């Protein structure tokens, strides 16, 4: 798959993500990200599209077929979680929280009010 493993790792590092952080954002396991970066596994087309969209690069750039990417808008600088992202994160990591506490946490995280 060309130079995908190097391009992917470079994009992750330049965006300031750890493998764990990027796995949360993309919904891909950390081990899959590690295998992509080491060249031990290649993503399917749907995953390639998700990665290209997230980093705002075209597929040819992501696959290492070109060194220049065409972008329509500026690259993402910060991750803005959706309700579903937060709900999933709380469900996976909030085992010690009650259902009510989880709901409260989601409301707080998604509120538009900044203190």
Would you give an account of this structure?
With 115 residues, the protein is mainly alpha-helical. It has helices at 4-14, 19-26, 30-38, 45-55, 59-62, 83-93, 99-110. It is elongated. The model has no long low-confidence stretch (mean pLDDT 80).
Topology:
Elements: H1 4-14, H2 19-26, H3 30-38, H4 45-55, H5 59-62, H6 83-93, H7 99-110
Short structural summary:
This protein has seven helices and no strands. With 115 residues, it is mostly helical.
- The oligomerization state is single chain
Outline the biggest β-sheet.
Answer: none
Strand content: under 5%
Mean of residue pLDDT? Answer: 80
Can you tell me the overall shape?
elongated
| Protein structure class | mainly alpha
**Poorly predicted residue ranges:** none
Number of strands: 0
Helix fraction by DSSP (H/I, runs of at least 4): 55-70%
Tell me the span between the first and last alpha carbons.
47 Å
Number of helices: 7
Give the helices and strands as they follow along the chain: HHHHHHH
Radius of gyration: 16 Å
Keywords:
115 residues; mainly alpha; 57% helix
């Amino acid at each position: 798959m060309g130079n995908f493993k190097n391009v992917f790792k470079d994009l992750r590092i330049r965006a300031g993500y750890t493998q764990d952080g990027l796995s949360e954002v993309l919904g891909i396991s950390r081990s899959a990200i590690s295998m992509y970066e080491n060249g031990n596994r290649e993503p399917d087309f749907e995953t390639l599209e998700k990665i290209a969209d997230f980093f705002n690069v075209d597929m040819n750039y992501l696959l290492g077929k070109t060194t220049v990417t065409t972008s329509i808008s500026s690259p993402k600088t910060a991750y803005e979680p959706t309700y579903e992202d937060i709900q999933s994160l709380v469900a996976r990591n909030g085992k010690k929280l009650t259902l009510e506490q989880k709901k409260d946490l989601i409301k707080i995280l998604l509120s538009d009010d900044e203190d």
